[in-house]
Amino acid sequence: MNHGGHNSVSASAPASGTDKTILGEVIPFGNGTARSWVSVNQQGHPTAIGVTLTEAALQGLAADVTPGLVWMAEYILALPEEAKMLPFNHIAVNWNPRGHDPSGVYNVPHFDFHFYLISREERMKITARGEDLVKIRKPLGTGAIPEGYIFAPDSEEPGMGGHWADPGSHEFHGKEFTSTFIFGSYDGKVIFWEPMITKSYIESKQNVTIPLKLPTQYAQEAYYPTSYSIRYDARRKEYTIALDGMKLRHQAVAAK
Where is the TTHB210-like domain positioned along the sequence (predicted)? Predict the structure, then answer.
């Protein structure tokens, strides 16, 4: 696992009760900073993982990026060693100043918070060109993604793979896109979990926890989230996006 960064306790991430939150990597982001973290309980088991942004991080961002060049607006965050019981390797936050397709749905300024299950080196081999498209479109096993999710047309991206969306989500039914949850796949495997959230929704200083539609089969035994949260800390003037409600899942065993 690609660990790194500071590995110290941070009091600012949303640990609950007696949970301890360990800081991962801190990087420049906009006019501020972003940091990764993981919360663990007294037994050392992970309870949440996330990204915390200072208020200034949402200012000074690029007004435009070059289409098709995923690395141009991507911020990579390594994870602390305490994340080893999670399936996630690193976090990549992508800033989309003009949004992306489908037009009329996601073409508003937003962030993609990718929690990757593979390394950055493995991601760089995903070209989304030629024969690689066959790997991106390779079917997933039964239950690998939540029931009802579909492979989004023309969603193949270099460094990412393919994207799976929930057609039942509010933004496809006449409501304004605020946040949604995406899964990604490559070569027949799920490779990321992704909250996708508009800049304006984050800046509206929400404190919400949204239950996830869940897979029924898991490729590796680890702690997986059952919800995601968007929070604002008025005292510290920070925004936090987290995967939480962790539960231990066993390999190829139905979730309960």
Answer: 42-95
Biggest CA-to-CA distance, the chain: 51
Residue 5 domain flag: no
164 within a domain of the structure (yes/no): yes
- The residue segments making up the domain with residue 102 are 20-249
Domain membership of residue 181 (yes or no) is: yes
Task: Count structural domains, the chain.
Answer: 1
What is the per-residue pLDDT across 114-145, written as a single tens digit (0 to 9) for each?
999 999 999 999 999 999 999 999 999 999 99
What does pTM read for this prediction? 0.90
* Distance between CA atoms of residues 250 and 99, nearest Å: 36
- 221, part of any domain: yes
